[in-house]
Amino acid sequence: MEPVIGARDLEKQFAVRGFSGHVVPALRGVSLDVAPGEFVGLVGESGCGKSTLSRILIGVESATSGEVLHEGRPVETREEWASLRRDVQYVFQDPYGSLPPRMRIGDVLTDPLRIHGMRDRHERAARAIAMLQEVGMPASAMQRYPSAFSGGQRQRISIARALVLEPRVIICDEIVSGLDVSVQAQVLNLLLDLQASRGLGVLFISHDLRVIRYLCSRVCVMYLGEIVEEGAADELFADPQHPYTQGLLASSPDRAAPGQLAARVAGEPPSSSAALPACPFEPRCPRRGDVCAVEVPPEIRLGGHRALCHFPGAPATAQDARSPITDRA
Ligand SMILES: Nc1ncnc2c1ncn2[C@@H]1O[C@H](COP(=O)(O)OP(=O)(O)OP(=O)(O)O)[C@@H](O)[C@H]1O
Ligand SMILES: [Mg+2]
User: Fold this and answer.
1) Whose CA is nearest to atom 29 of ligand 1?
2) Which pTM value belongs to this model?
């Protein structure tokens, strides 16, 4: 099916305040698609550019270069952006900060309908109530304020708000990371139900590979503003090619305590203003060779799966995955 939304070679540089001429390369040539009914996972460490990408995809931030596509066509004019914003909605990370505290839930849900030209007040209320029920909340929530609800309930309401305009894709940016594990599971199952009942496409951003594995049919792994590996979830989890993906998987917190979900890979990303080596993962890579610092890694393809690496494939041994090998090039 044709993707609802896409990114082509998106670059984004932020100017560093107080350092004229310094820029943070937040996105370095990102391409990605989300089709109707597809659950795409986007995973990567803090600061790798996940939220920047999603803000550009909904038009609240502009790219330095590259294109956003809506139904396969580049989005350029105001009308084209307005049409995209109806079709693609964003659910925010913070269940406490994302709903306006002084607005009744009824207004939170009906305002977008009013703004988009639904004239009849009763029709707006009926749509909002139906939406609340679809996310497992009672109609009585309409009269209440956000403070009356728990974090999980607020995320349900935020999802209802995202869905009132009947978008075809929603972007969920770390929407369960602030919630207890049992509540997380309820919200994730709600998303799966909505995907099945509405054919909704979801771009699901998370640090947590377990959540991505549970939900997503396709996974994009991002490192320092670049998608370094992408593939069908079962292929990517069974046979990861990029050492960064392997590191994330090896450190995936199967036994982590609730709230301690972020996977860790040894080392730190370089300070973003420093000059990056040809492969940005080179300084941290257990399999780096001499070539990695000086030649941009090639894109390798295996079936429906791609990775950017000079030395793709499984580490020879578990030990190999941890200790640097410097004589391969
Ligand atoms: N408005 C801004 N001005 C300057 N730099 C910014 C701005 N927004 C983001 N950045 C920088 O761009 C990079 C990507 O940030 P972004 O918020 O997209 O990362 P993220 O992957 O969403 O991280 P997290 O997992 O912590 O939410 C970071 O280095 C960040 O400091
Ligand atoms: Mg973010």
Assistant:
1) 47
2) 0.89
